[in-house]
Amino acid sequence: MCSVMKETLKPTNPLETLSDILHDDMAATNKLILDRLQSDVPLIPKVASYLIAAGGKRIRPLLTLACGNVFKADKHKMYGLAASVEFIHSASLLHDDVVDESDERRGQPAANLVFGNHASVLVGDFLFARAFELMVETGKLRVLALLSEAARTITEGEVLQLVAKGRIDLSYETYLQIIAAKTSALFGAACASGPALAGADEETVKAFYDYGYALGMGFQLRDDVLDYTGNEEKRGKVPGDDFREGKITGPVILALEKGIEADFWQRVMIDKQQGKKDFARALDILGSNGLLEESEARAAKYADQAVQALAQTPNSPIKQTLCEIAHYAVNREA
């Protein structure tokens, strides 16, 4: 069982601790990622590198390495698995930005603005294909099943979000379904695939999947709160992106379901009639009615679920850090 002091998690980042523990493994994975970006068609590595070299937290491949290390999975195959997870994530981002007509990604103009929609979609397809090549190289059908299911689920989430776009009556349940598909499915598969690669039994693989799934849910719920309350310097992005784009997320859905300022939300989120003071008003509405706190409390429940999922799995320093990450994810400031 993990011992986690929740109140001590904000000052330190256990993701950095995990990165230090797995420094050599992450370095090898990053090298493989860059190697597998290459193609005889010059535009492909140019577009792919533009997104992947821009950074990102690399949380998903880090989790794959961590969970694989708990069971001493074959390192060479584990690097390919972690790279595969990152390629699936990056491919989904390229497609997502085209669908959402995004202007920015990771602090720079989105790839679809720089290279065009056609190139972004096709390079996203290339990354998906590379991911599947890497999965096959592991020689584990169970791993292929986990990650291919995640790739399918991500696409379903994109379509569900597309159908829900612009709907003022979007339910909290549907909102959670979108998060589960777009975020949690890959988190779950990233965590489960390492133990699966090592030949762990199905109960153990499921436990690590459940950990990753709950972690992803809490992570995204916290992210949606931070879009309203986050610090620009810490996050590297201006608060209110979701608001300005008319993206209806958890805190706003809670307001709508409680009948709080429905006319205001209709005007600013659906009709896109936003004034200079409207974001401040939105923040005041969400804060004064306890909706941001309620969103945070819901995220915290997922962190507890993530820790509980690992209760019966082998104890190790990495497992302890994974438990700390679950609570850090829903308390973080960036």
Question: What does this entry look like structurally?
Answer:
The protein has 334 residues and is an all-alpha fold. It has one domain: Orthogonal Bundle (Farnesyl Diphosphate Synthase). 73% of the residues lie in helices and 1% in strands. The protein has 17 helices and two strands. Strands 1-2 form a two-stranded antiparallel sheet. Helix 5 (75-100) packs parallel to helix 8, helix 9 (172-197) crosses helix 10 (202-229) and helix 16 (291-309) runs antiparallel to helix 17 (317-329). It is globular. It starts with 13 loop residues before the first helix and ends in a 5-residue tail after the last helix. The model is unreliable at 7-11 (pLDDT under 50).
CATH topology: Farnesyl Diphosphate Synthase
Query: Helix- and strand-based class?
Result: mainly alpha
Mean pLDDT: 93
Q: Which assembly state applies to the chains in this document?
A: single chain
Q: Which features does this protein show?
A:
globular, Farnesyl Diphosphate Synthase, mainly alpha, 334 residues, two-stranded antiparallel sheet
Give the arrangement of secondary structure elements.
Elements: H1 14-21, H2 23-36, H3 43-52, H4 59-70, H5 75-100, E1 104-105, E2 108-109, H6 111-115, H7 117-137, H8 141-164, H9 172-197, H10 202-229, H11 232-235, H12 241-245, H13 250-257, H14 262-270, H15 278-288, H16 291-309, H17 317-329
Antiparallel strand pairs: 1-2
Helix pairs in contact: 1-17, 2-5, 3-7, 4-5, 4-9, 5-7, 5-8, 5-9, 7-8, 8-9, 9-10, 10-16, 13-16, 16-17
In short:
The protein is an all-alpha fold.
